[in-house]
Amino acid sequence: MTALEFNYTLKEMSGSLKPFALKLTRDMEDANDLIQETMLKAFKNREKFAPGTNIKAWLYTIMKNTFITNYQRMVRRNTFIDTTDNLHYINSSGSSVQNDAYSSFTMEDIEQALNNVDDVYKSPFMMYFRGFKYHEIADKLQIPIGTVKNRIHIARKELKAKLTPYAHSF
């Protein structure tokens, strides 16, 4: 596609972008600015357009990404910082208060899973968890170090299987 054809296609597509821009911005002036910025980016990056592909979809993607970038910039700009001794971020989600109910349920599930692990595996696992070294566990339980490692591995595997709902939480 020649530069002239590309420019003509961009001009033809600008009208079809307006409803999408209005949907994103909910304001006519902001929509016009978004369309203009999208067209400018498309024109500057015309060599990245693959001829034979859907130019409308390409323009929609540019517009959506431009809108997201502008929105994130606006949010960062509107975050106020209190310069008192406490240095609180007023608009930050980090200042929200967490409910301990979730962690309480999680701990109950972990304790229940631990209680269901056979003592042969749980004992070396708990010692390792408390900071004992493999050789210290082996000496204390009077078993070979390889057996200690194997039992800790089995305990971990059992706990992992019993706590699968929390696999992506930690």
Automatic annotation (TrEMBL):
Q: Could you tell me which CDD domains the record lists for this protein?
A: Sigma70_r4
Keyword Transcription annotated: yes
**Keywords of this protein's UniProt record, alphabetized?**
Sigma factor, Transcription, Transcription regulation
What are the transmembrane regions? Answer: none
**RNA polymerase sigma-70 region domain boundaries:** 17-73
InterPro entries of this UniProt entry?
RNA_pol_sigma-70-like (IPR039425), RNA_pol_sigma-70_dom (IPR014284), RNA_pol_sigma70_r2 (IPR007627), RNA_pol_sigma70_r4_t2 (IPR013249), RNA_pol_sigma_r2 (IPR013325), RNA_pol_sigma_r3/r4-like (IPR013324), WH-like_DNA-bd_sf (IPR036388)
Query: Where in this chain does the record put each RNA polymerase sigma factor 70 region 4 type domain?
Result: 108-159
For this protein, the record's Gene3D superfamilies field holds: 1.10.1740.10, Winged helix-like DNA-binding domain superfamily/Winged helix DNA-binding domain
Out of the domains of life, which is the source? Bacteria
Spell out the family assignment given in the record's similarity comment: Belongs to the sigma-70 factor family. ECF subfamily.
Extract the PANTHER family matched here: RNA POLYMERASE ECF-TYPE SIGMA FACTO (PTHR43133), RNA POLYMERASE SIGMA FACTOR RFAY-RELATED (PTHR43133:SF25)
Protein name in the entry: RNA polymerase sigma factor
Can you name the source organism? Answer: Imperialibacter roseus
